[in-house]
Every structure is written in structure tokens, then in C-alpha cells.
């Protein structure tokens, strides 16, 4: 499939694939729907709650006495379990008739599966004298004998449950029925000797369920339990992840993050991987471009790169680690004390003494102040003009409260060697990444070269020397608010000639401008044109400019007036000679606009145009 994709072929025929492609040859596709002969009438995925698996009582559960023939047991009615389950040892003692079935997994609420190999169909039992029949599956249940789940509750129809009073009311066989639950036994202190004895005789596993509902511990707790809660209080804190960045076995940075409600249910494997990804994301500037080692107390993570990546989570993790040169090492938990402490408690005072701020980075930067040309130039600017914008602080140069460092080359992305990873998927992804980067660099270099060639076609090498006369090209005169010139190309484009005083750099020159000029005397070479011969100067006076580069023009006098037809009405126009511009640059402007723009302009002494010459006046 990958070979056909690389060649651009259709998956169904040997023709090239393109948008809108249709196979020319007809194909007959047959969908064969198989049928499993051992399918029950209820094919819902079996699931059992933690309460039913461990025997704990909680909201939505109720304990009732159940009777199989002459044997009386305890059943847990659990609305969180999908099917009915029975302890596999109890099923053996009762000698229930087992039906051959294919072994399948039962999903536990925490995500771990349990293997079910036994099925008991249409087993008769009674609850407080009410007869029932149901199908049971055998599971290693602890602390309980039987579990009745949703599969049995669906047979009852409408059920009124009072979980507080442990009662159930329903209609069965046309008669109203009532079930009264029994209270669970309270938890009592048990010595270690008693627990060991029970484990030897009955092979029973015990679990202690602790719930911290108040900020302070209640006083009625057993002294031994109170001592445990006080001594190991960090165990009951909210789950966290932690990591430490070390160099030469010395810690230099710490990281600790709290886990949200959704991530608290993750497995230990996933939490450990989350801690690694978070640490790499936090310390990326320090480890990118160099090899580093990841030490974890999760042994299975050591084989992350070597094993086959099958789950979406593993594929996501591996993709985020691409581009890093790393190696995962196993370190037992008793030796990885710093990271373990960070994952338990944040802000513990004993961690403050682990880190002493010491770094040779500042010494290396100070050493470049006397050797690096860039740092020497910046240091001279900081000494000559402090705070504009560089300043000296504690032997370092600062720019806007940031330390100035010498220029450095960006880190290189390590090239992947084909076959380095035993995982085929990872090997192909990394090889494809290098091919894409190589092709991208090739296209970028071609684009840069092409743009340079196109730009150089419109450029020429021009050089002037002190004493040469050149023409200066300024922005053409445009009146934006009064009247736009009809023939803009007739306006003056060059001024001068002016003498070149000095060459500034390789592309700028200083010109000798008139003393009354307010224009900066340094210009780019593209604005200059060499003066040849004894040509009469075009214009030696440079008009004043605004901050935006436009000329500041003021009317000197009104040379003439005329009336012109604009649309359906006649408008008066005035011939204006502008200050600091030659007479040939005089323009016709609307008189009303001139009065609005220049209130102090006297238009009363204008001379009317006689005979309609030049503009068709009346």
C-alpha cells in the first residue's frame, strides 16, 4: 500500500490517481457477514465496577441475602455492573452446571481487564423468598459471593430504590415486592498478625479505603490509624508529576506539576511518560541539539523506542520526541529520590537546600566582552551613551533589562541514520522527515537565487567621488487636498546639481545642500544621478518637507483667474505661483478651495483673464 501511494497509483487499479479519478475496469465487491454461533442474546461488553470487585459499599449498591438451594450467601445489587457475576470458588462449591463458552475479558472501571472463563445459564435463586432465574459469569470477586448487575435489574421493570434506607420496591409476577438491604459491617482495626493469618488460610486480599473529607483529622479515629495518616500525609496529597534537570550529577533545575481530574486516572506508565514530555517541553532550550539521558523508575519506558508502537497514545508520545537525541535509562525508585519527592509534595522546605545557584554562563559571557568584536562595539556604545539603549550592570551589558550575548549559530537538527530504530514506523517517519527537510532547503536556495537574479536586472553599479556633481531625486510635488495636477510627469523630478562632500558607507553619500535647506544631507545612491557637462541647473532650491515626505507649499501670488465649466455649473479657478518653486510650476486651483485652505490669502486683487485665453473664461 505504501509503495502504491509513493508511486501515485490508485489503490484499486494500476492507473495514476488524481482528483476525480474513476477506475475504468468494473469491480465486483462482496461483503461477507460472518455469524458467531456462540453469541448471547445480550452482546453488550461486560463491565464490573470497583465496588463489586472489592466488596465495598457505596451509593448505588445494596447488600441482600441470596439463597441457592439450601446455601445462603451475600449478594451485592450494583447498578454500575452490566452483568451478573459469581465468585468462581463459590460456583465450584455449589457445583453449578457450567456451559462451555469462549473466554472473554471483563472490563473493570479502572480500565484493567479480567479474564472470564465460566458461564452459568438459567440458575435459580431466591432473594428474601422471591424466586428468580439469571445467567452468571465467574470472576475472582473479593469480599462478596454474588453480584447482580443491570442485566438482572432490567428484568424487574420499574424499580423504586432508596439507597439511603437500602430498600427496593418493584412488581414481580404481578405482585408488589419489597427488598430490604443489610448494613455493611464497620471497618475495625486489625493487627498485622491477623492479616497474615487470613492470607495463609483463605488467600484473601485486603484493601483499606481512606477518604479525607475534612481539612483536619477527626478525633474518634483509632490511634494507630491516626499515626499512619500523620506519618504518611504526603501519600494522600493530590497526584503530581516531577522531574529534575541535572548536569554532572548536580541538580540545576526542578519541575513539579499537579495533575487534573482526568489525568489522575491514568496508569503509572502514562503518568511517567507525561512527566518526561512536560520536562522536555520545559527545558527544550537547554537540551535541543545535544544528547541527553532520561532516567526513570518505570522499567517499561526503557523500551519505548525499541518496542512496536501500537496505541494512539504511544504514537503521539513518539512523535513529540522526534528531533531530540536522547536515551532512556532505568533508575530504581529508591535511587531517584529527588524526582519522587517532587511528584509528592511541592514547596517542601527540605528541597530548598538541594539547589545552590551557581552557573559558569555569566563568566563565559563576561569573557567575550574583551574578545568578541560585536560585544566590544556594544560595550563602547554602552560606555559612551549609557541607557541609549545599552547600559552596564554587574559587569554585563543590558538591553531593555535583558542581557546582551554574542551572536550564536542556531542549533542543528541531527540527521537520522536509516535503520537506527528497530521500529519500522519510527524509522520511516524519521527518514521521510530528512527527505522533506532536504527538499525544502533546495527550494529555498533556488528561490533566493531567482529573486536575486530578477532584482539585479534592474540594478547597476554606481559610484561617486567627493567633488562630483549629482542631481537629487525627491518625491514629486503632489497637492493632496487642494487640486491634483493633471500632468504629474511635468513636475520637477531632480534638483541640483549638488556637490558630493563625502561617501558614507558603500551606498550613501553626503551632499552640499543650500544652507537654508531643512532636508538631511545624506542620501541613498538610488536617489542620485550624475551631472554631465555644463547643463543649466534644473532647480537649486529645495522646498521644505513634512515628516511624511511631502512638500510644504504656500501661495506666493495670484497670476490670473478664469471660469471653467465643471459638470453643470461654472467654477472660478486661480493661477497660483507657489513659493520656492519656479514660475513654470504655477498651477490652476479652485478659488473656493484656496480660500478654505489659506484663509489669509488675498484674492480680491486678482486680475481677471481677458478674452477667454488659456482656459475659456467669461
TrEMBL record:
One of the record's GO molecular function terms: hydrolase activity
Taxonomic superkingdom: Eukaryota
Record-linked InterPro entries: Chromo-like_dom_sf, Chromo_domain, DNA/RNA_pol_sf, Peptidase_aspartic_dom_sf, Retrovirus_Pol_polyprotein, RT_RNaseH, SH3_Tf2-1
UniProtKB keywords: Endonuclease, Hydrolase, Nuclease, Nucleotidyltransferase, RNA-directed DNA polymerase, Transferase
Entry annotated with the keyword Nuclease: yes
SUPFAM superfamilies linked to this entry: Acid proteases (SSF50630), Chromo domain-like (SSF54160), DNA/RNA polymerases (SSF56672)
Record domain Chromo: where: 555-600
Tf2-1-like SH3-like domain mapped to chain residues: 467-531
Domain annotation Reverse transcriptase RNase H-like: ranges: 240-324
Protein name: Chromo domain-containing protein
Organism: Hevea brasiliensis (Para rubber tree)
Amino acid at each position: 500500500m505504501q509503495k502504491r501511494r509513493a508511486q501515485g497509483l490508485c489503490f484499486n487499479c494500476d492507473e495514476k490517481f488524481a482528483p476525480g479519478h474513476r477506475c475504468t475496469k468494473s469491480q465486483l465487491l462482496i461483503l461477507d457477514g460472518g455469524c458467531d454461533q456462540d453469541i448471547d442474546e445480550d452482546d453488550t461488553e461486560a463491565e464490573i465496577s470497583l465496588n463489586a470487585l472489592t466488596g465495598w459499599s457505596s451509593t448505588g449498591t445494596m447488600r441482600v441475602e441470596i439463597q441457592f438451594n439450601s446455601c445462603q450467601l451475600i449478594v451485592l445489587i450494583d447498578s454500575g455492573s452490566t452483568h451478573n457475576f459469581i465468585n468462581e470458588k463459590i460456583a465450584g462449591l455449589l457445583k453449578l452446571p457450567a456451559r462451555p463458552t469462549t473466554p472473554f475479558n471483563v472490563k473493570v472501571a479502572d480500565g484493567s481487564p479480567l479474564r472470564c472463563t465460566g458461564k452459568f445459564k438459567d440458575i435459580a435463586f431466591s432473594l428474601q423468598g422471591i424466586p428468580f432465574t439469571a445467567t452468571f459469569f465467574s470472576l475472582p470477586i473479593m469480599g462478596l459471593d454474588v453480584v447482580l448487575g443491570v442485566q438482572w435489574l432490567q428484568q424487574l421493570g420499574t424499580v423504586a430504590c432508596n439507597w439511603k434506607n437500602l430498600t427496593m420496591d418493584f412488581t414481580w409476577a404481578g405482585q408488589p415486592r419489597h427488598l430490604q438491604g443489610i448494613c455493611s459491617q464497620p471497618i475495625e482495626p486489625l493487627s498485622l498478625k491477623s492479616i497474615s493469618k487470613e492470607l495463609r488460610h483463605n488467600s484473601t486480599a485486603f484493601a483499606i479505603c481512606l477518604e479525607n473529607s475534612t481539612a483536619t483529622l477527626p478525633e474518634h479515629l483509632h490511634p494507630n490509624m491516626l499515626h499512619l495518616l500523620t506519618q504518611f500525609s504526603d501519600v494522600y496529597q493530590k497526584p503530581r508529576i516531577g522531574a529534575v534537570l541535572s548536569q554532572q550529577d548536580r541538580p540545576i533545575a526542578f519541575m513539579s506539576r499537579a495533575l487534573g481530574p482526568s489525568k489522575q486516572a491514568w496508569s503509572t506508565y502514562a503518568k511517567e511518560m507525561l512527566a518526561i514530555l512536560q520536562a522536555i517541553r520545559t527545558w527544550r532550550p537547554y537540551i535541543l541539539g545535544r544528547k541527553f539521558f532520561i532516567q526513570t523508575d518505570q522499567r517499561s519506558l526503557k523500551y519505548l523506542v525499541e518496542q512496536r508502537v501500537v496505541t494512539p497514545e504511544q504514537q503521539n508520545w513518539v512523535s513529540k520526541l522526534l528531533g531530540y537525541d536522547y536515551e532512556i535509562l532505568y533508575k530504581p525508585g529508591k535511587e531517584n529520590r529527588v524526582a519522587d519527592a517532587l511528584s509528592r509534595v511541592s514547596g517542601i522546605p527540605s528541597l530548598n537546600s538541594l539547589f545552590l545557584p551557581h552557573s559558569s554562563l555569566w563568566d563565559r559571557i563576561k569573557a567575550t566582552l574583551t574578545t568578541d568584536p560585536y560585544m566590544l562595539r556594544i560595550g563602547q556604545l554602552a560606555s559612551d551613551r549609557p541607557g541609549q539603549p545599552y547600559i552596564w550592570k554587574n559587569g554585563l551589558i543590558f538591553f531593555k533589562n535583558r542581557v546582551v550575548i554574542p551572536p550564536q549559530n542556531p542549533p542543528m537538527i541531527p540527521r537520522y541514520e536509516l535503520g537506527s530504530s528497530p521500529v519500522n514506523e519510527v524509522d520511516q517517519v524519521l527518514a521521510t522527515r530528512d527527505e522533506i527537510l532536504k527538499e525544502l532547503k533546495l527550494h529555498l536556495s533556488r528561490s533566493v537565487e531567482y529573486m536575486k537574479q530578477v532584482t539585479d536586472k534592474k540594478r547597476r553599479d554606481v559610484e561617486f567621488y567627493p567633488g562630483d556633481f549629482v542631481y537629487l531625486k525627491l518625491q514629486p510635488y503632489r497637492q493632496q487636498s487642494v487640486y491634483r495636477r493633471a500632468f504629474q510627469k511635468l513636475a520637477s523630478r531632480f534638483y541640483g546639481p549638488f556637490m558630493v562632500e563625502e561617501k558614507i558607507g558603500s551606498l550613501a553619500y553626503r551632499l552640499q545642500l543650500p544652507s537654508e535647506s531643512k532636508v538631511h544631507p545624506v542620501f541613498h545612491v538610488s536617489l542620485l544621478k550624475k551631472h554631465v557637462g555644463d547643463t543649466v541647473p534644473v532647480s537649486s532650491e529645495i522646498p521644505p518637507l513634512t515628516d511624511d515626505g511631502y512638500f510644504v507649499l504656500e501661495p506666493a501670488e495670484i497670476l490670473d483667474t478664469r471660469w471653467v465649466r465643471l459638470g453643470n455649473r461654472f467654477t472660478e479657478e486661480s493661477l497660483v505661483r507657489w513659493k520656492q518653486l519656479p514660475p513654470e510650476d504655477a498651477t490652476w486651483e479652485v478659488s473656493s478651495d484656496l480660500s478654505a485652505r489659506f484663509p489669509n490669502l488675498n484674492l480680491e486683487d486678482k486680475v481677471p483673464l481677458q478674452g477667454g485665453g488659456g482656459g475659456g473664461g467669461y
